[in-house]
Amino acid sequence: MDEVIIREEKYHENLPVWPAVEVFDKTIDGLVPATRIKSWKDFESVVASLRDGFDGDEFVFRGHAHYRWFLEPTLDRFADRSISSVLAETQLQNFRRSIRGRILDRSLLEADAFANDPQSLELWAIGQHHGLATPLLDWSRSPYVSLFFAFENPDDESWVDEKGNPTNHSRAIYVLNREFIADADPSDDEKYLQIVEPAKDDHGRLVNQAGLFTFAPYGETLESSLLKALADSKVDIDDPSEVAKYICKIHIPNSPENRRECLRQLRHMNIHHASLFPDLIGSSLYCNELAREYVVKKSSQTSSPKGDRAEREDFWQGHTLPVDDKGLKPLADALLVSDAAREVSRPDDLLMIARMVVDFINSDSGVDWFARESELARLRTIVRRRLGRIDFDEDSITEAATALVSKAAEISSELASSDLKQEAE
């Protein structure tokens, strides 16, 4: 009888721990061998083993904020995971015509883009840094720059299931053997994956990010072109442990707190928006992240001490709110769904979240919000995010958000029924 395999809800927990690898689910990782680490803090050991265990092979790295994202250049997303030469020709010709008079190096306007001319790749690279959808894919020689890009932004609010629960449980780092690709026969440029290192870097981003690009032949994905080169080099592409010497995907557990801790550590290494994007955009993004951290820190400083459990319990047993806030305490109480949540929660933090929910209901939702699942899911997502920013028990966040929204819906429903009854009388 075949063994029954129980699949973990969080995808990355199905994967082996580094350095073991497996092709577990091709719909998520493609044909790339995948692995996981238990924390972003373990990434340093991965980097050390890559440097020490692969005979000096040089790797490049790419960070993804969502674990389901494939290795797709932006132009791929207009097609079906591979770029036709017709689509690429049209795109680059349009770009070449549209930048006349806006670029100093006129030789780039005359290059033959579709014979893999070096100047054509330079033009693609210029477009890449100015928002053009291209066949290039960004990589970095620095593993920690890629770790930054994996955790750069908070999760998108749409990354939830139909009940409003978060679905992006891990972020990912791709590791690619640059040396193998660079050593390919130059006469096979049109057959295999290429490394592109532009000579021009007008904005300084490539230098600061230790950046370069890959370029797959038209009609191929990065994976298919790399596997073709490996097979031609007599590498056993059916053995994940062999393929992982050339490409692999590392899943890293994701949560709001993990993200903040990781970015704080990278900031100590001078890896942040302002250093990676040496322009006004980089400065703005850097300040935005500092603002997010300020809000979390300020909330913590103005709350009661974390360790005083007795004080917190006394608050919930005997605290009386002002009359105009009489609806907040039942909402705040609803968040205390477990002993762990009660032990670490600070009353002021929970009242702040309850007040936020009331403000949302009064200003941003319709009068029948409690009867619409889309609004309930939207509010659960907001509450979960707020709970992730305070010192709340991580394992209780989803349950607490559901309980709070259910309590708010119950109160709103009762008020609506009362209003209707009064109108009828």
UniProtKB/TrEMBL annotation:
InterPro entries with a match to the protein in the record: FRG-dom, T1RH-like_C
Matches recorded under Pfam families: FRG (PF08867), T1RH-like_C (PF11867)
FRG domain residues: 55-159
UniProt protein name: FRG domain protein
Annotated organism of origin: Rhodopirellula europaea SH398
